[in-house]
Amino acid sequence: MRIGLATALLASAAWVAPAWAQTAEPPAQPDAQADSKQDSGIAEIVVTAQKRAENVQNVPIAISAFESVTLQERAVNSVAQLSAIAPNVNLDAGTPFSGSPAVLSAYIRAIGSDDFAFNIDPGVGLYLDGVYLARTVGANQDLMDVARVEVLKGPQGTLFGRNTIGGAISIVTRDPGKEFGFQGDVTTGSYNLLSARGSVDIPITDALGAILSFGVKSRDGYLKRVPYPDQRANNTPSYTAFSSAGYGNGEREGGNDNWNLRGKLKWSNGGPVSLTLSGDYSRDKGTSANKLLGTAETVPGNFAGTANLPGTAFDPTGTTGFNFAGLYNFCIGATSGQIAARNAQALCGTSGTQFNPRFQIPSYAGVNVDGNPANDRLPWDSRYLIADPDRSYATGNSFSDLKNWGFSGVVDFDLSDAVSLKSITAYRQLDWAAGLDADGSPLNFLQLSFTMDQWQFSQEVQLLGKALDNKLNYVLGGYYFKEAGNLHDYVTFAEGQVQVDGPNRLETANYAAFGQIDYRPTEWLGLTVGGRYTNEKKRFEGGQQELNGFNYKLFGCSDANGNITPNGPFPLAPVTCQTGLSYPDPTNPVRVYVPGTNRKSFSNFSPKFGVQLHPTDAVMLYGSWSRGYKTGGWTTRLTNPQGNVAPDFNEEQATTVEVGVKSTLLDRKLQLNAAAFTTDYQDIQLNIQIGTSPTIANAGDARIRGFELEAIVAPVRGLTVNASVGYIDATYTRVSPAAAAVGGPSPFQAGTIVGAPLPKTPNWKINLSPRYETRIGNGGSLIFLADWSHATSAWNDTQRTYILRRNASDLVNASIAYQEPGGHWTLGVGATNLTDNRYLTSGGANIADGTFFGTYNRPREWYARFGFKF
C-alpha cells in the first residue's frame, strides 16, 4: 500500500534536480567486487544545506549537487558553467557593460540580478566554505579543488540570510587528506589555452594537516578586433582623451590571464574541538567580448530641434530634435549657420568645461562641410555592424584586473554527544578595475570603465543539536556582517557629449538571529519550522558628475568654447542656471547627485514551515512555505541633476510554496526527484533605462510558477545517465506607471508590461548527460561522456529589447578519456559547444545614445587534459 501510494505520487508530480552522481563503482582496481550492491548503484552525496551533513536525498529542499569528479569530467571550471546542467538556473559569466567574465549574473527560478553596481545586491547568495560573498564581482569563482557545489533553489532566508531570495550557491572546498598526496591536471586547447592546476595534501602531525592548491590559466580571446577601412577613423580622438579608470586594449577580447592560490590548515585530534583555517587569493585578468549589435541614430529627441524653447537648444516635444547619436551626426555635417539656427553652437562646440581642462576636446562642428577633407569625421550609423559574432571594429578600452582574496577560521566544538557549537569568522577584500568599448567602433560612442574596492567582515555562530532520541534536530545561530567600499563609474557617450564621472561609497552593517527545528515524531512524518530576523543599516554617498555640463550647454548657459556659466541667468526663469537646472551642489556646478550621506534601515523576518512524509525508506514527499527578501538601496548612474532628493528603492520580497518528492528506487539503480512551486514576487527591483541612465526602482510584482525534474539511472555497470527538465512561467502582474512609460512597447522593444515574462528566464531547460565507463584489456578504463542542453528563448533585459533577445540554444559537449589501471593518471580530449551554437548571454540598449551592444557565448572549442593523482 505504501509503495503504491509513492508510485502514484511519483507519476503525478513534477520533477526537481537532485544530486549528480556517478555509479558507486570505484575507478576500479582489478580485484574490485563486481557483484557488490554498494558498488553498482547510484552513489550518495552528502550536503550541508541545513548546516549539518546529510544525504541530499533526505533534505526537503530542491538541490542540485555536483561533486568534484562530475565537475572535472564535464569540464566545468567556473560557477557560470553550471548553468547548462541545473534546471531553472541561469548563470552567465558577465553582466551588461561589466567588461569581465569574473562577474556573475545569477538567476534561480527567475529571481536574481544582472548587475555589478555596489548599490545593487545579488538575488542569489554565493557562499565559499560557508562565507557569504557580497558582490557579484568575483562571484564567478574558479572551481579549483572543490569537494562539491550545492545549488539550493527558492528562498533560503532562514539559514542563509538576506539576498538569497532566489536561492543560494554553496561551494565547499576539499579538506586536507590524511596521507601525503599530489594531484592536478594540465590542459591545452583552442585559442592557445594553457591551464595547470594542482593540490598537495600535507599531513604535518597525526592531528594537523594542510592542503595547498594552485591554478594558472591563459587563453587568447575569441573576438578579434579588425581595423575599420576608412582613413577618417584616424581623425577620431583616442579613447585616452577621456577620463577613465584606466587605459588598455589589445587585438582580441574574451581572453584569460588568471592565477589562483588556496590553502587550508585543519587541526583535529579526535577530541571535542577542531579548527580549520583557510585562505585564498586570485588574480583575474579575463575580459568580456563585446559586440555592437545595432544603432538608432534616427530616433527623434529633445536636442537641437526646430521647436526649441526660446534661448535654448531644448525641444520639449522630443519630435524635431535629435538623440545624442543624431546630434553628433548633425554637428559634423551642418554648416555654422545651420547649427546657429538651432541654438546648437555650445552643443556642437568644445567637449568638457573649464572645470576639467585636461579632458577638453576641440569642437567638431561642421568638420565634414568645411572644405577640408583632412579633418573629416566618421558618422555614427550601422556601417560598424559585423555579422560575424567574433569580429569587431572596436579601438577603445578592453581590460579587467581583479584581485580577490580572503581568509576564514572555523571552530567546531562538541559540547556533548548531542550538542555542538560552530563559529565561522571571515574577512574578504576585492580590488577591481575594468574597461570596455561597448560601441564596437573606432568612435568614442559608448566607452565604460570602473573601479571597485570592497572589504567585508562576517561572524557566524551556530548551535546544532539533537534531542528526543535523535527525532529532533535544531540549528540556532547569530550572524554579523559588515562591508564597505566604493565604486567609481566613468562613461563617455557620443564623443564626449555626456561624460559621467561617478564616485560612490557604501557601507552596510547587518545583524541576524536565526533558527530551524526539524522534528520527526514518527517514521513516516517530519515537520520543519524556522525563521530569521534581520536588522540592517546602510549608508551611501553618491558623487556622480557629468563633466561636459551638457544641460548647461543645452539651455544656453555656456559658450562654444566649453565654458559654462552656472551663476549666469537661466533663460526660462529669473534664477541662476545652476538653480534653474536643479544642480544640487553650489561648490561643484557639474555634480548631479545630492551631496551628503544617505541612510536607510531595514528589518525583516523570513519564516519557513515544512512537512515531510516518508511512505518508504526510499521515498520522501515534502511541502514547504517560505519567505525571502533582498535589501534595498539607492539609484546611481545618473546624468541629470536630482535636486535635493537621492532616489532610492526598497527591499523586494518573495513568498514560495513548494511540493516535491525525492526517491531512490530499483536497488539504487534509479533516482527520481520532483518539485513544483509557485512564488509571489513583490516590489521587484527593475533596471529601467531612463535616457542614458540605467536606474533601479521597485517597479513591479510577478507570479512565478514552475516545476523541475531530474533523473539518474544506472541500468548496467559502467553506464550512468543524468537527465533533467525545468519549466518556468514567470510574468509581471503589476508594473509601475513610471516603468511602463519608459519601458513601454516601441519599434525597438516589446516593453515592460503586465503579462510580460521576466528577464533571463527561458520557459524550458532540458539536459541529457550520459556517461559510460568500460574496462579494456590492460585493466585501464575508457570513459565516454556527452552533454546535450537545450534552453528555449529568453529576454536578456527588462525592456525586452528585440535585438538583445537570447535565441533558443542547443549546446553539445563531448569527451573521451583513458584512465590507466592504477588510477594514477588520465588522458582525455573533448570539445564544448560542438555545433558552434551562438547566442547572446547579456547586452544593453541605450537608445538615447543610439547604441545596442551585447556579448555572445563562447564558440566551439576543443581541449586535451592530462590529469594525475599520486
UniProtKB/TrEMBL annotation:
InterPro entries: Beta-barrel_TonB, Beta-barrel_TonB_sf, Plug_dom, TonB-dep_rcpt-like. It holds the Pfam family TonB_dep_Rec_b-barrel. Residues 56-168 form the TonB-dependent receptor plug domain. Keywords: Cell outer membrane, Ion transport, Iron, Iron transport, Membrane, Receptor, Signal, TonB box, Transmembrane, Transmembrane beta strand, Transport. Its main location: membrane. It is a multi-pass membrane protein. The keyword Secreted does not apply. The keyword Transmembrane applies. It is found in: Cell outer membrane. Residues 1-21 form the signal peptide. Residues 366-834 form the TonB-dependent receptor-like beta-barrel domain. Belongs to the TonB-dependent receptor family. This is TonB-dependent receptor.
